[in-house]
Amino acid sequence: MEVNVRRNRITTNRLILRPFEKGDVHAVHEYASDKEVCRFVPWGPNSFKDTEQFIKRTIRARKSADNDYLGDYAVVLKETGQLIGGCGLFLISKQDREYMIGYCLRRDKWGMGFAQELAKALCHVAFKILDAHRVVATCDIQNAPSYNVMEKIGMKREGVFQKRRLIKDEWRDECYYALLKEDWQTMRLE
């Protein structure tokens, strides 16, 4: 897979990852208000006001960030320009060079390899540009499609935190995955 990075824009074979914009609110609301999309996450389903506040927050955070690559990204299909989800790359520990990735896609785009493609792109930025030592990701233990993506890109399950997240008024177990730089480099050479 080819990954091109220019400042705060990441492109892959089929996707463009770019900062969210004010005009994205309706497209984001389509997936952020879907009960099934939000089933395993602590937010949502969003009201329209929730979605507007998310967009404002991400725009503000990006403007105040000291690193062009960190923060939330809109996931856009390269071919059509359709916004199909969101993802993010976040610093967990500067000293330990540890970063976290996350992703969320609209339901009609599940199972097409987009999550795997964007997760690989975020890892590329973390390891190649930001010199990460490790990249982590988490998900609800019941969210098999999400942890399958993590495993497909080479992440290893390091543990399960019992009753770690309060999601929809229920304490849920959370899987914790990580990928080390040397493992990422080995996979890229194969």
Q: Notable features of this structure?
A:
5 helices; nine-stranded mixed sheet; alpha+beta
Q: What share of the residues does DSSP label as strand, in percent?
A: 25-35%
Distance from first to last alpha carbon: 13 Å
Q: Helix content range of the residues, please? A: 25-40%
Q: What is the CATH homologous superfamily assignment?
A: Gcn5-related N-acetyltransferase (GNAT)
Mean pLDDT across all amino acids: 94
**Biggest β-sheet strands, sense, barrel:** 9 strands, mixed
Number of helices: 5
- CATH topology, which one? Aminopeptidase
Question: Can you offer a commentary on this structure?
Answer:
The chain has 190 residues and is an alpha+beta fold. It has 5 helices and 9 strands. A hairpin with a 2-residue loop joins β8 (156-167) and β9. α1 (25-32) crosses α2. The protein is globular, with a radius of gyration of 16 Å. The mean pLDDT is 94.
Set out the fold topology.
Layout: E1 4-6, E2 9-11, E3 15-18, H1 25-32, H2 48-64, E4 71-77, E5 83-93, E6 98-105, H3 114-129, E7 134-140, H4 144-152, E8 156-167, E9 170-180, H5 181-189
Parallel strand pairs: 6-7
Antiparallel strand pairs: 1-2, 2-3, 3-4, 4-5, 5-6, 7-9, 8-9
Helix pairs in contact: 1-2
Summarize this structure briefly.
This protein is α+β, with helices and mostly antiparallel strands and 190 residues long. It is 31% helix and 35% strand.
